[in-house]
Amino acid sequence: MSVCLFLYFSHLRCNCDEVITMDKIDAALISALQDNARSPIKVLAKKVFLSSPAVSARIEKLEKQGLINGYHASINQYKLGYHIKAFINLQMTPNQKKDFYPFIRSCPNVIECNCVTGNYSMLIKVAYHSTMELDEFIGRLQKFGNTDTQIVFSTPVEPRGIKVLGDDKPVLCGKKARL
Fold this sequence. Notes:
Alpha-Beta Plaits; Arc Repressor Mutant, subunit A; two-stranded antiparallel ribbon; 179 residues; elongated; four-stranded antiparallel β-sheet
C-alpha cells in the first residue's frame, strides 16, 4: 500500500498541484527525519529494516522530488533574548508586492510571511527583544498598508512536522478518518 500526499508548496520552483506518492518505508523515513533530522542513516536503516545504502538512496530520491526541502535546527528564541513573538496582518494592494517582497525578505526578525485570504493580504510572524523594537518595525511596515498585530502570550503547540501515514487514510485530530 502506498501513501499519497497532496503537497502545496509556497516556493516558486514547485508545482503547486504536484502529487507525491510513497510507500510505508518512505513515510516512516520522513516521519523519523521530522522528529530528528540529525538521525544517522544507520539508525534510520534499523527503523525501516533496510540497508544504509538503500536508505540513503531513498532520502536522496525524496530530496530530488522536492519533498524534503532542507534540514533545520529548532532554536529556543527566548534563550537568545527574543521574548516578543507576534503575528502581524498587513492589508496592501497587489501592485505593492514587487516592492514589499524584497523589503520583507531583508528583515531579519521576520520568521515567516504568508500571502493569505481574507481582509488582510499578508500574515507575518516576527520575533523581537522588546515591544519597542516591534513597534518600530510595524511603523516601517505601515508604509505598505494598514496593520493589525497580535502579540503571543503562549504557544501550546510548537511548530512541528506534518503527519505522514503508512496508509491512505487522513488523520483528523489524532483519529483516522472514515472514508
